[in-house]
Amino acid sequence: MKFKLSFLSFVFILLNIQAQNIRLYVGTYTNGDSKGIYQLEFNTETGNLENKQLAINIDSPSFLTYSPDKKYLYSVNQSDDGFVSSYKINTDGTLSLLTRVSSHGKGPCHISINESGDKVVVSNYTGGTVSIYPINKDGSLKEASQIFNHNSENEKSHAHSAKFSKDNLFVADLGRNAVYQYKLKDGNYKLASPSIVEMEGNPGPRHFLLDKGNEFLYVINEYGGSVTSIKKTKKGFKQIDFDSTLDENYKGKNSCADIHLSKDERFLYGSNRGENSIAVFKRNTRNGTLDRIQNMSVHGDWPRNFSLDPTGKFLLVANKKSNNISVFKIDPESGKLSFLHSTDLPAPVCLLF
């Protein structure tokens, strides 16, 4: 009887450990030691990263996204001859390539999927174009159904990110210093506004997010080291706040990169490349304004992308130049970060839970 009890206890502990481990995919640049997309196991209780494996050998998968059911994964392949790839996720976490199509622009840098999982949108940084792709039922990609060219005779576009929001498509264009809005009409997206608010100076909008209620939109500005806070109104959009991402004592060069909200939306986080920090903001959930409360070192160099784990207890940072992923614990009351540990991985630039 004692053996049975101990054996059952062992099984319970083993199952509990397995339940705590979730998969993390890492997109990389492959012009060095990296070979493609990697997978690791992340423990949602301890914050440990283990069992690093190559999921697929593929060229510069610099940004990743899942299908809603997590049966398929999509990436841009960032090169002059840009591509978009779709993959089937195998039971062991490895990836099988389904389709590889042109991104219709040089330097694709971002990809996202709509809520229904039947379209992805790709931003081409160097080409200045945005491409929409329908998705087949088997997860494979069709050829692009729409391509938007933001370049003009006088201004060079650098489309840096795009996201669907119900019947809207928003695009952050760093080159044109604007956030575009497209609206779905008769099955296609039509330009509704070339700039939802005036971006004063040249802050360089890079990434953005919307809150769960689709009432507030937050843009992190690469050149300006700042976050622009925007509220949706009956007449359109208006800027409600503008905050620096940098510590007052930092005087060096800086390029902001990524932005995320905490699970409860009480805190906002942004990455600084140069200061090499995560800026932590307390968010007023009623009026949407921000107040910066911490600048935490990323314990690495050049944090291009970061992610919060599904539990909302940890924040992980991909440090491209120092070839490591840093793990931080999030204080649930204050939202502030504390460093736990770091894991080596070559040229990480995108983290996907």
Automatic annotation (TrEMBL):
Listed Pfam families: Lactonase (PF10282)
InterPro entries according to UniProt: Cycloisomerase_2, Haem_d1_sf, Lactonase_7-beta_prop, WD40/YVTN_repeat-like_dom_sf
PANTHER family, per database record: 6-PHOSPHOGLUCONOLACTONASE (PTHR30344:SF1), 6-PHOSPHOGLUCONOLACTONASE-RELATED (PTHR30344)
Signal sequence coordinates: none
SUPFAM superfamilies documented for this protein: C-terminal (heme d1) domain of cytochrome cd1-nitrite reductase
Record EC number: 3.1.1.-
Source domain of life: Bacteria
Official protein name in the record: Lactonase family protein
Organism classification: Bacteria, Pseudomonadati, Bacteroidota, Flavobacteriia, Flavobacteriales
Gene3D superfamilies linked to this entry: YVTN repeat-like/Quinoprotein amine dehydrogenase
Single GO MF descriptor: hydrolase activity
Keyword presence, Hydrolase: yes
Family: Belongs to the cycloisomerase 2 family.
Keywords noted in UniProt: Carbohydrate metabolism, Glucose metabolism, Hydrolase
Organism: Flavivirga amylovorans
